[in-house]
Description:
This protein is of the alpha/beta class. The chain contains 9 helices and 10 strands.
Amino acid sequence: MDDDQTAPILRLDAVSKRFGPLAAVQDTSLALQPRRTTVVIGPSGSGKTTVLRLMLGLLRPDAGRVLHRERALDAGGASGLRQFRCETGYVVQDGGLFPHLSAVDNVTLLARHLRWPRARIAARVAELTALVRLAGDALARYPHQLSGGQRQRVALMRALMLDPGLLFLDEPLAALDPLVRAELQDELADIFRRLGKSVVIVTHDLAEAAILGHVIVLMHDGRIVQQGSIDDLVRRPVTPFVTRFVRAQRRFDGAPAEGRR
């Protein structure tokens, strides 16, 4: 691990990505700091999910570089990219669990593939079950037998199974009803504080960003228009678009979340 605990763990350096005539991301630079949660937010089509996929190495930029600890993500070829992915956790929308596997088999899939000893797997599952507050009997069920909140907890356990240094979440709570979503927002904020990992979350919800994020990155038309604290966006918007976006978030009352930093 890098000895410099202040150096960015992952960095986009003037990255651009096109899909045919569409410029999804344009000349975008962004640095992820260790032990901080970065929330990428913006309207549909703003480029936020493309940025996440570029960070994960699921897409290659047409221009610019993606750097992990100041080393190009593709520098080690396919084997280097596989190693990087073993050091990251990824939670997709609605969990993305394999329907033919039980919850515990979903959680332990990669650890079993890597031939972890059974005792190590069992210990890690017990630790994660307590961390995400999942009822023990839920692990034996299949995804269709779980509630939406339980599926997201299982998906988070799967992402954390190998104890990755980087955790990515793409609209992880979007499909949940408001009460469950509010409960999981608070739980995620607590989990991120306790784990001290570098986290990237994509969402369209400013209230959620305020609860979870140390740094909020607002995107529009494939570019970052402002980044900083929730206070910066609400009280010191740099463009009229930022003001319109904040005002459009009717569930957000304009006050920074207390105790989230």
